[in-house]
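A protein record pairs a chain with a discrete description of its three-dimensional fold. The following entry can be read in just this way:
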Amino acid sequence: MAFRKDVVEIIEPKDVFVGNPKAEVTLEEFGEYESEACAKANEVVKKLLQDYDGKIRFNFRHFPLTKIHQRSLKAGEAAVATAQEGKFWEMHNILFANRRNLGTTSLKLHSKEAGVHNKKFLDDLVNATYGWQVQGDLREGMDRGVKDVPTFFVNGELVKGKPTYDELKKAIDAALKKVKKKAPAKQRA
């Protein structure tokens, strides 16, 4: 008797966006949930998404600094787990709001608050079901030169300096100008 193994499609962090899914400008952050600087940056990103409504999309990638923040890896896994039910952004904001309370049991409670109904959520956390996805983000970040969090990219280009509203706005405005310059060339073709 042969066993049939079901293939489960996992929604990867690189495929989870908020904002206009068809926006030509992508703001991407490598961060983690225990970092105070990332929590502050999350508030900046919320304002940017509001101010550039329809013009940008945002993607959060996991870069847990486990030597400093031991719970950041599991928090990242919890966020990926909630993405499987379309609740990533709800969980993302809850994790930042509760960044000092990210133990495994707390993560389960946070997932319920985010609206997740997966009965295996705690098992998935304990068994590191989504650990590969978080590790994949970490590896990609290192390959792209990320050393600390938060690190931002706009359309794949590293944003240098502190991730303040003004610095990120400058990078987004520059990317929007580049997109506008390319647009007429596409129309002539």
